[in-house]
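RETRY 2/3 - previous attempt timed out on the joint model. Re-submitting the same 723-residue input unchanged.
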Amino acid sequence: MSGFEAICLAAAGVLYAASFLGAVKRWQRWALICLVGGLVLHLASAAVRWGGAGHPPVFGTYEATLAASWILLCFVALSVASVHHQFRVLATGAVPIGLLLLAYGASLFDTQWVPLTISERSLWVELHALFAWLAFAPFTLACCLSGYYLWAGRRHRGGAPEPRDTNPSSDVIDELAFRYITVGFVCHSVMFALGSYYSSILFGTWWRWDPAFSLSLVAWFLVGIYTHMRLFFQWSGSRAARFYLFVYLLIAFSYWGLTYLPAGRTFHVFDLDLSAL
Amino acid sequence: MIASRHSWGTIWTLAGSRYLTVFVLVMAITYVLVLAAFGMLVQTRWLDIIAGLYPYRLLYTLFFVNLVACGIAWLPMVVRRCKREELPEPGAKAARATHVIEVPSPAFRIKDFKQRLRWHGYSILDAASGSGFSSSAASGPVPVCCARRGRFSLAGNLLFHAGFLLLLVGAITNVFYRFEGTAIIAEGDSFTGTKKEYRRIADSFKGAIPRVDFDVEKISAEFWKGKVFFTGLEARLVHRGGRATARLSDAVRVEDADVTIRGFGYVPLAELKDERGEIVTRANLRLNIFPPGSEDYFFVPGYPHKIYVSFYPDHEEANGKILSRSVNPVNPAYFLRIMRGRIPVYSGLVKPGAWVDYDGLSISFPSFVRSGDFRVVSNPGHPFIWVAFVMMCLGLAWRLLFYRKDVALWRDGSGRLWLCGRFDYFPKLNAAWLTGLAEELRSRPG
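RETRY 2/3 succeeded.
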């Protein structure tokens, strides 16, 4: 990761936040330029790393933060620049999350690339990781929207005026959160299928009660419940938003918490200490 | 009889209810969380045992009963809704999920509107001839343009849930017919798949051993800086189907089984001489002596000795300890411990080709070859499981991402244009999009 991309992304975050809170529309264009510039630099540094290491940057927590933040910010840029250009709240919430992910990976984990071991040398595991981050990004955006929905609702009840540029209504924000969740749900399912297929090659069995599998399955079931509650029991609004924020906690743990499990309990931790060999 | 029929009806209704669906999902989450918690404390094989206990069997049963009952209950509704062809009409504004927007008649560019809908994946239907959509209105507004996408998307729902049933078939097939065995095979050796050739066969195996027959032509391994960190491990196999390369991450299909190489090692050739100096035994020893320092043992039939062997491919002695500088076999040596009952009769380092004398016998390890720890797996249920996963992913994407959207443009008796939309999901989001589209197409000069 280079410092330039962090600066660009931070500038984008600040400009989006300023345009959201100050309702200054012309800053949005600059914010989008900064965001796209940061993404291009991010992609370039990832490509350099890919070329050096010989594998896509998806192994180990640091590389995971690179992949996750890039895909998350791509989702933001595409959403903001195209169909939902008025959703500055999306960028205001998600750009800092992307930056936090980068900071988390760069500050707490080894940034040196390590060679892949034999269990990681497969296209299947790379596709599995790709779909994992493709699921994580919309889940995170849905979390931002659900959080915003609750925040705006509280402000509204408290008599405070809504931010001036809440162009989309609360109902639309609520539905958009659900839409991102459905995209995440589909990608999460594909990730499951690919992971299961790779597990059958690696361990000879399609399912193992590894904590990574179990937690991911719990997250999948929770999203399943959320979907059923919305479609069949007409859950919406703050009730759905509150429930989803709870679901997202578990989703986030299933992605980022595995590295804190007791050593050796899951093969899903790719942070290697080669000096210990 | 009537009461009994009524009771069965009630049970069937309960089995197919959405309340039971949610209950089963909550139950599943609780149970899987229990397994996740145990997973941090015990080995995976214990979790397999826990997942097979009666409370879990009850969960699986409820899950599939609910799934089948819901599927049967949905089927007529799915067929009915897929067949539905009515247009979203201006008069049905109050109807659920129908949105009506008035657009200015002269400025609205219908051709561009159709183009835009096509770009968004809609099929434009010929409203004038009445094909495709049908309007329930006998008089009043007439359709100018009709478009639709995702007509059969509801079938995706069935496809997704049917995938679970296929998953069940695959999982049950694996429970009864799955085979997993491991074998240490040296470079140049043949493997014919007989029971005695396996080092270990999974405890749960109940069926016949799969047919598998191959020769190991070559084994190659790459280590990172000579340390026990594999960056490459592959075995070239020759079988009836030809030559293939097996890796840990890439199985080779050999007859009825999949073969992968999951470990590496060295197989020493051992020679034993008796008191008269005649070689009585010569054999390749398939031992677990990799990584360096690992100890395994063997017996020579007819003799009471238990011979423990460790292998150091690049050995050195430091402070009385034997170490291996790397895993490359550049300076190999064996460490032997020979026991007769509980009595140690020999302990020491042996170089290849050197003879060790004990109890009137002599043993030597003149050479060694590379070996692989191979896994042979037969999972007859896996094809069902992969098809199930494909069905589930496609079904979910079809239903949730390509859901049904009906759009129609009407002209009423006074010449006013009405844009109507009906959407399976996200009605407000889609209505906002439709409104934006209408705004865009009237704001530009026509």
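Chain A touches chain B through 61 residues (CB under 8 Å). Closing ticket.
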